[in-house]
């Protein structure tokens, strides 16, 4: 089943106040962070805060995720063990940052399996979100996407990625100075998207750090949404509504997609004449139209849209 991830809200695990506030925000996903948003000395308490928040609940309707530290640090295993042992039944996914090879995903899968088995949790239920943050991760993205059936999303981490390739910019999400034609991130985004679609994963764009610039957020989010990304990170409550808007189909597009599906289903049936290509108003629809409509329909349903039109078969 497609989980809606239009808005992916980052919440520092070191802040019980922010963990509590996230309960009331209309974000599709909440990820509680133990990595970059938490100072080294605060990580042990952040784990405890996250376990308490997950077990207390109140995140109904949201995908509940914890971002652990990456495998090059000394904290990863303790992050996973303490969070999953403490609140595994109330956790949907673990986000692994700075993924560079498939082996790193396999290692997390094995650790999760061990913890699940030893704590009587359903093996394999907790998913993995893989964050791509450097050149090696992007080069290995096909293998990363296939590394475990737990993998649900591939995520672009722009800040670390920009640093890893020596991009001449300090503004995350905006074009680097001197790049005046096209989009400097287009190849990276498309490469992540192709791997996601090839292996049936979701593709998530990373953060936009100018949190007060909502129009800027919409503009940058609109690029990845236009390509086909499923959602984007949000760092501030004011960005949540913008993400939900940008990554949802327009009502008229959703209605049209549902009409195409109903019409195609009717016209290809015996009652409709078993036709392969027909006219819907002024538009010809066929099997390719159905596939395109399925995409918009799935996104609309996941976003909770309700159709406002119905298909009426022609009278005999």
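^ structure tokens above, recovered residues below v
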């Amino acid at each position: 089943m497609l989980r809606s991830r239009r808005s992916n809200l980052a919440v520092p695990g070191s802040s019980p106040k922010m963990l509590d506030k996230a309960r009331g925000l209309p974000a599709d996903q909440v990820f509680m962070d133990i990595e970059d948003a938490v100072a080294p000395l605060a990580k042990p308490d952040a784990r405890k805060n996250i376990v308490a928040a997950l077990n207390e609940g109140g995140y109904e309707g949201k995908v509940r995720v914890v971002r652990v530290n990456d495998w090059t640090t000394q904290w990863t295993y303790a992050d996973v063990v303490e969070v999953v042992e403490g609140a595994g039944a109330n956790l949907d996914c673990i986000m692994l940052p700075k993924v560079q090879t498939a082996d790193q995903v396999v290692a997390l899968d094995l650790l999760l399996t061990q913890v699940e088995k030893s704590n009587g949790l359903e093996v394999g239920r907790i998913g993995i979100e893989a964050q791509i943050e450097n050149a090696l991760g992007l080069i290995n993205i096909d293998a990363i996407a296939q590394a475990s059936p737990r993998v649900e999303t591939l995520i672009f981490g722009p800040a670390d990625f920009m640093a890893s390739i020596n991009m001449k910019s300090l503004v995350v999400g905006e074009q680097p100075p001197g790049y005046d034609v096209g989009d400097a991130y287009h190849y990276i985004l498309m490469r992540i998207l192709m791997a996601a679609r090839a292996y049936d994963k979701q593709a998530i764009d990373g953060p936009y750090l100018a949190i007060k610039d909502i129009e800027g957020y919409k503009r940058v989010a609109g690029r990845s949404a236009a390509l086909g990304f499923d959602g984007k990170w949000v760092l501030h409550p004011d960005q949540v509504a913008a993400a939900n808007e940008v990554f949802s189909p327009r009502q008229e597009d959703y209605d049209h997609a549902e009409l195409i599906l109903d019409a195609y289903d009717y016209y290809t049936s015996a009652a409709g004449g078993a036709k392969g290509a027909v006219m819907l108003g002024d538009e010809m629809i066929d099997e390719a139209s159905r596939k395109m409509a399925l995409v918009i329909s799935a996104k609309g349903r996941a976003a909770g849209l309700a159709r406002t039109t119905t298909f009426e078969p022609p009278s005999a």
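DSSP finds twelve helices and ten strands in the chain.
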